[in-house]
Amino acid sequence: MRHLTSIRELTRESAIALLDNAQELAQVGDREVKKLPALRGKTVVNLFFENSTRTRISFEIAAKRLSADVINVSAESSSVSKGESLKDTAQTLEALGADAIVLRHPMSGAPKILAAQGWTKASIVNAGDGSHEHPTQALLDALTLRQVAASSTDLAGLRVLIVGDILHSRVARSNILLLNLLGANVEICGPEALVPSGIEELGASISHSFDQALERNPDAVMMLRIQKERMDGSYFESPAAYGRDWSLNSERLSKLRLNTKILHPGPMNRGLEISAEAADDSRSLVLRQVANGVAVRMAVLHNCLSSGGES
Ligand code: CP
């Protein structure tokens, strides 16, 4: 593949190949194997129009572990703040030698437009676009689940419950698509106002009671951050009311089976959608998700920059 803008660009086979590759690359960075020369001479630009900790830093580490040069650009510190367009920014970055542009953008579809318009020859990797998709997050979540699942290939039969603010979640959309591709069963659970109509068409059942969903004993519960910054305030009025119905709190944690895994893409609102006790529980895979982000992003960058220009 030359670009990765959506999970829809992957087949089951190509997704499994990326996960296999990431599993192998997870060893790079260990004491004995610090770096691979695979992307020596390539330049990766992290172009972030929204804040990020995990995604930006792990793309940087991933590129460096493959010996690429890395430049980090944030919108506030670039000429974007003077009104420069995405097209002109991308073409400027290409003129400066960018082979890949890792793009986080508030507009849904921005990476796809950049890849499809042919404005730049650089590979485009979506690092999260609006409420649309976050494909590398879904890949790292799948890798994390695969490491604890019965199968070392796909996630066939795994029952994953995704809870909370689905409406604004690019993580949820990419996860529904990828989990389906890998054979998992996905249930989406959230308040009616935060579950968009039609999302079931991506491949998920929908429910509106967290407590009832937990009684169905999912294999994994993925909690989502409530994205107050994308709300106008009309829905989210009371953290206490949200927490009562939608938090993975101590009481709900005590009802989880011993082998049910807890995921959260981060950043977590501790005490809101997830209690500190749940976030730090032995069943929580949150930090393993973060660590797997480096390996998955290495696999994606390597695949995009070694494709010889195929789309
Ligand atoms: N999960 C995620 O995208 O986190 P960041 O916003 O910190 O990159």
From TrEMBL:
One of its GO terms (cellular component) is cytosol. PROSITE patterns: CARBAMOYLTRANSFERASE (PS00097). It holds the Pfam family OTCace_N. L-aspartate binds at residues 82, 170, 225. Gene3D superfamilies: Aspartate/ornithine carbamoyltransferase (3.40.50.1370). Keywords: Pyrimidine biosynthesis, Transferase. GO terms for biological process: 'de novo' pyrimidine nucleobase biosynthetic process; 'de novo' UMP biosynthetic process; amino acid metabolic process. Its EC number is 2.1.3.2. GO terms for molecular function: amino acid binding; aspartate carbamoyltransferase activity. It catalyses: carbamoyl phosphate + L-aspartate = N-carbamoyl-L-aspartate + phosphate + H(+). It is an enzyme of class 2 (transferase). Residues 157-302 form the Aspartate/ornithine carbamoyltransferase Asp/Orn-binding domain. Residues 2-147 form the Aspartate/ornithine carbamoyltransferase carbamoyl-P binding domain. Pathway: Pyrimidine metabolism; UMP biosynthesis via de novo pathway; (S)-dihydroorotate from bicarbonate: step 2/3. Carbamoyl phosphate binds at residues 54-55, 104, 134, 137, 266-267. Heterododecamer (2C3:3R2) of six catalytic PyrB chains organized as two trimers (C3), and six regulatory PyrI chains organized as three dimers (R2). Catalyzes the condensation of carbamoyl phosphate and aspartate to form carbamoyl aspartate and inorganic phosphate, the committed step in the de novo pyrimidine nucleotide biosynthesis pathway. Belongs to the aspartate/ornithine carbamoyltransferase superfamily. ATCase family. This is Aspartate carbamoyltransferase. The gene is pyrB.
